[in-house]
Write a structure and sequence with these properties.
Layout: H1 18-29, H2 32-35, H3 37-45, H4 49-73, H5 80-88, H6 90-120, H7 128-145, H8 147-176, H9 193-196, H10 201-215, H11 218-224, H12 234-259, H13 271-278, H14 284-316, H15 334-353, H16 356-384, H17 389-408, H18 416-446, H19 453-457
Helix pairs in contact: 1-8, 1-11, 1-12, 1-14, 3-10, 4-10, 4-12, 4-16, 4-17, 5-6, 5-16, 6-7, 6-14, 6-15, 6-16, 6-18, 7-8, 7-14, 7-15, 8-12, 8-14, 10-17, 12-13, 16-17, 16-18
Length: about 450
Amino acid sequence: MINLKTKAGEQAEKPLKWWELSLLGIAGTIGTGFFLGSSIAIDMAGPSVLFAFALAAVGTYFVYEALAKMTMADPQKGSFRSYAKKAYGRWAGFSSGWVYWLSEMLIMGSQMTALSIFTRFWFPAVPLWVFACVYAALGILVIVVGTKSFDRVENLLAVLKVAAILMFIILAILALFGIFGQGGEDVPLPRTFDSLFPNGLTGLLPAFIYGFYGFAGIEIMGLIAIRLKNMKEAPKSGKVMLTVLAIIYIASIGLALLMVSWNNFTTEQSPFVTALNAFNVPYVNHFFNAVFIIAGFSTMVASLFAVIRILVTLAEDRDAPTLFSKRIGKNIALPAIGLTAAGMVVSIILAIIIPGRLYEYVTTAAGIMLLYNWIFILGSYGRLLELTTKDKIKRVLGFVFILLAVIGTVFHQTSRPGFYISLVFILVVAIVTLIMSHFWKKKEDDKPPSPSLFTKLE
C-alpha cells in the first residue's frame, strides 16, 4: 500500500475507497448551514424552498463532476486552485486560493460562535469565548494528530448527522400519523401557484443560495479525492453523496412544512425543532442541540483541513510566504496550522465584538465568495479538458444556477448586504493580485535570457 504524504498537517494519508470519500464529503457538508440556514430559506420562499434545494443539488453536482474529472485527468494536491492556475495563469491560482482561505476563515468564526451558543444552552454561565477557544483547540488537535484521526472522526460524525436527519424524518412521519406526539396544526397541501410560491419568484431566488449552502463542501472533497485508490471513481463518490443529501434534505424540509405552516417558522430556530415542538415531542431541544454541535464541529474540522492544505500549496507555489510550506516533525505543517489558528482567534474576536447582524452579513458574504470559486472550477473545466456536448450543456447550466444564486441575494434584505460585502472582499483580493502581478512580471523580466540553440552549439 502506498502512503501519500499530506501537505496539510497530517502524518500520512491512506488511500480511500469511493464510499469513504462519500462519507467524508457528507461530514464536510452537513452543518449548521443546513440545520439553521434552511429556516431562513423557508422564510424567504415558503414551500417553494424545496425547488431551491433540488436545483442547488443539481447545480452542485455539475460543479463537483467538473472538479472530479479534472482530478481524474491530472491529480493535484491544490485541487481547484491548481486547475485555475493551469487554466488562466498565476493570478487565477493566487486569487482563487486566497478568496477560499479568507472566506473559510470567516465562516469558521461563525461556526465556532454558533457552537458556543449551542453549548451555552446547557451551561449558560460560561462566556462564549471560552467555548469558542475550546472548539478551536479541539479542531486543531484533530488535524495535528493525523489523517487516521481526521478520517475516523469525520466518518463517525457523518453517520451521526445522517442518522439525526433520518430520526427527524421518522419522528415527523409518526407525528403526522398521530402515533407520536400530540397537537400540531392542520397544514393544507399547496395546490396553487400562490400557495406554492407565496413570495413569488423574488422569494425563491434569494432562498437559492441557502440551498447551495446546504451542499457547500465539494471543495473539501476535491482536496481529498487525490487519495482515492481508483481515481476514476471520484464522480461516483460525489453522485452518491449528493443524491443521499438531496433526498434527506428535501424529505426532512418537506415533512417540516407539512407539520407547521411555512409562515410560522422563525429564523431564530431550526425548522426541525419548530416542527417537533409543535407536536410536543419531548426532549427535542436537547436532542437537536447535540446534533447542531456535532454538525458544526464536523464541518469546522473539515474546513480546517481544507484551508491548511490550500495555504501550504499557496506557499509551495510562492503565492504565500514559503515559511508556510515547511513541515516539522512527522510531516506536520506547523507554520500553516499556526497562521490558521491565529486567523481563527481573530475570527472569534470579530464574531464576539461586532454587532450580530453585521457579522452575519460578513459570513453570508464569505459563503457567496465560495460560489465565486465554483465559477473558477467550471471555467477551468472548459479550458483544461475536451468536453462533450452533454458536458458543455451541464457546464452552462452550472454557471446559470450559480449566477442565479448570487444575483438572487440582491432580492432580499437579509442577504443583500452580504452580496455587497462579498464584492468588497473580491475587490480587495483583486487589488492585491494586481500588485503581486507587477512583482511577478518584474521577476520574470529580471531573469537572464535562456541561451539560444546557436549559443549552445558554440
